[in-house]
Amino acid sequence: MRPMRMPNGMPSTTGSYFDWLQDEINRLFEPESAELGPGLLDRPAAPRVDIMEYDDRFELLCDLPGVSENQIELTLANNVLTLKGEKKPPVGEAEQQKKNRKLYRDEIWYGNLQRTVSLPQGIDAEKVSATCKDGVLTVTVPKRDEAKQRRIDIKSS
Amino acid sequence: MATQELQRTTATVRPIGTIWEEDGVVYLRLEMPGVTKDNLDIHVEGDQLVVYGRRADLPEGAHPLVRERRRGDFRQVYTVGDTIDREKIEASLENGVLLLTLRLKEAVRPRRIEVKAG
What is the pLDDT of residue A3? Predict the structure, then answer.
């Protein structure tokens, strides 16, 4: 019998769409891979982010180990920040070389990623900056002066 | 190599990794975003290889609005057998990815014996 193809292109071991669906759903709940698993529709993976608020700025942090600055594209339009990128396998890891390998554990994921975050009002879009260090992307979004918290002195009469 | 003083008693997470063997060398590639060279401790204790990566705490003045990233220091312990040459473990860290290179002892490496025609 010809192996049945699942919607993700993988040959099915059991021949059942329900098993495939079950696997996909189970994978969503695996804490290790949920963030970067191949989605149901093979959409780009959405990396997890942290957003911190400081008195004068917001900071968005995203773990992107093994991704260099030039593989990340950041755009900002109408207060919506879009992060796009591609996580590529390290250079010199061609398929031919992999053939000689005895693989014990393979958890690292490679592929496209995309994440969209709506930023609050009162930010200074012109002054948004980003750095990528030690596998962590940090996007700094300064607040506009009028949005900064100000201390109001109470005068004694 | 750094001492064990980096380690804390807080909850730790296991780094995501890929492990393979190629030509008598075992490679461990571990993803440890946010870990710097100074915050990384790799040591061998008996037959255990301990990898510990400390991550920065919540910076002062930061109010978290969204927290989705995995939190906690990275920790993973591997048992290294007698076939691994413990003196020759190498480590490199780049962009939050640690690559450990463990070499098999010469004695256990597969050797090809040429058969001479008589």
Answer: 47
Contact B70 A48 (CB under 8 A): yes
Q: For residues B71 and B96, is the Cβ–Cβ distance under 8 A? A: no
pLDDT above 90 as % of chain A:
37
Q: Residue B50 sits in a domain of what CATH number?
A: 2.60.40.790
ipTM over 0.90: no
**A152 inside domain:** no
- Helix or strand or coil: residue A114? strand
B96 or B23, which is more confident?
Answer: B96
Q: Which of B18, B25, B71, B109 to mutate to test the interface with A (most CBs of A within 10 A)?
A: B18
CA distance A135 to A71: 12
Give the residue numbers spanning the domain of A61: 42-147
**Does the beta-carbon distance from B16 to A63 stay under 8 Å?**
no
